Amino acid sequence: MHALAKGRVAGIAAGDAAGATIVPRGAGTGLSGGTIACADAIVVATTRLRSIVSIDRAARVAVVEPGVTNLAVSVAAREHGLFFAPDPASQKISTIGGNAGTNAGGPHALRYGSMVNHVLGIELVLPSGEIARFGGAVADLAGYDCVPLIVGSEGTLGIITKLWLRLLPLPEDVRTFVAIFADIDSGARAASAIIATGVVPAAMEMLDKVTIGALNAAFDVHLPADAGSLLLVEVEGLSEEVDDWATSILRVLKQNGATDVRTAATQAERELLWKARKLGYAALARIKPNNYLHDAVVPRTKVPAVLREVNAIAERYGYIIANMFHIGDGNLHPVLLFDARIQPVDRVMEASAEILKVALNAGGALTGEHGVGLEKNHFMFWVFGPEDLDAQRRARDAFDPDGTMNPGKIFPGGDACADIPTERTKRALAEGMWV
Ligand SMILES: Cc1cc2nc3c(=O)[nH]c(=O)nc-3n(C[C@H](O)[C@H](O)[C@H](O)COP(=O)(O)OP(=O)(O)OC[C@H]3O[C@@H](n4cnc5c(N)ncnc54)[C@H](O)[C@@H]3O)c2cc1C
């Protein structure tokens, strides 16, 4: 491990000794129940640790506290001609600590990868109260690299209190296109055809008809109301290469049935398109009071077939379904829209399990970017055998041998707090701790 023990945080160790468990929390925007606190937990919110400690333009490294929002890092980096690539749609409010906790992605993960590709170092408060540091601005430390293990560990290894982030130079040129298709299939074919040309766009996002309708009703975005699907494609780089890529992309979009293609002519137009994409989820609240947003990833070429099956499941169960997703990397986000007052949540969960199974049968993964949390821990058996899970548990035990950190998350054990092994809970309650 690259750990340098620097000190101790007494409160954490005291909490552990009293039998409490600890749930690290950022902004609480996570979508897999990662911050749900069970009976004996102390929730440690890091939102007030929001200082950008330094930005080193030459080294292209930012040192930040975990409560800084994702957008604040990007805004601060821009002043130095740099940017931070991971850009979850929640970037205005979600924290860098939470982004690291979930290994968050976002539209630009297609070209740049998710958080794990952009975190160089982490300061972590271990459940013992020790403060350890892994990695940092200097690359190539000898020994095991624990940073990628901590990124995506969903608060189960310790509390992140500082991060060293990789920044990238702002691209010289950015071009954003929006293409309209009659249906999802033709849009998805165009997306695969673009990748087949060898161009890797910075982002490639798809919105379906339901989402387009909701956005038009909720916001002043004026998307084509008759579109069966909308493909948002962005390329960035040196002006010369962006020109070449733009020519290829426009050709491929038309060859694959785009009925209309527009290029954002100004920064304001570009921002409006991204605003539409990032507000899609909020707009869906107009249709039904409740929704269940899924997160699964499948091979990109399987997207049309998987979505056909997913839509058929929603229809069979009687739910409206909306899709807005990162088509470039096959990261699907089907949203089941329902009214919990008249449609039982248990049925929604059944439909959701079927959706997940379809994605896994297509060669996909349990989660694309939202994490396992409490939502999918009981599905871990579908993809990992007992030996795999045991190996993962032993890795966790190296940091947290007593299971103090965020218990019940990631590892199978139940799908609600009540199902989590309760020895600690009983002890804490017997001692009169708050619940
Ligand atoms: C409208 C909307 C759009 C979204 N779009 C995207 C998207 O495009 N891409 C994407 O990946 N996600 C997306 N999300 C999901 C969510 O925003 C991300 O998972 C985000 O990374 C969570 O950050 P947070 O600060 O809210 O963390 P929280 O929800 O508070 O915590 C998330 C997890 O990280 C752990 N954690 C938090 N802080 C720390 C810390 N300091 N130390 C250790 N562990 C910690 C928690 O224990 C928990 O397991 C979206 C959510 C919403 C509501």
Tell me the major beta sheet. Answer: 7 strands, antiparallel
Q: Percent of residues in beta strands?
A: 15-25%
What is Rg? 22 Å
Helix fraction by DSSP (H/I, runs of at least 4): 25-40%
Structural class: alpha+beta
Number of strands: 19
Low-pLDDT ranges? 421-435
Q: What is the overall shape?
A: globular
Please give the domain count. 3
**CATH class identity of the largest domain:** Alpha Beta
Unique bound compounds: flavin-adenine dinucleotide
Give the termini distance in whole angstroms. 35 Å
Number of helices: 15
Write the SSE topology.
Blueprint (H helix, E strand, L loop, with lengths): L6 E2 L1 H8 L3 E5 L15 E5 L6 E5 L4 E4 L5 H9 L3 E2 L12 H7 L6 H4 L6 E7 L4 E6 L11 H4 L8 E8 L1 E2 L3 E9 L2 H13 L6 E6 H10 L10 E9 L1 H17 L4 E4 L3 H12 L1 H4 L6 E4 L2 E2 L5 H15 L2 E6 L5 E2 L1 E5 L6 H17 L18 H4 L2 H14 L23 H8 L5
Helix pairs in contact: 6-8, 11-12
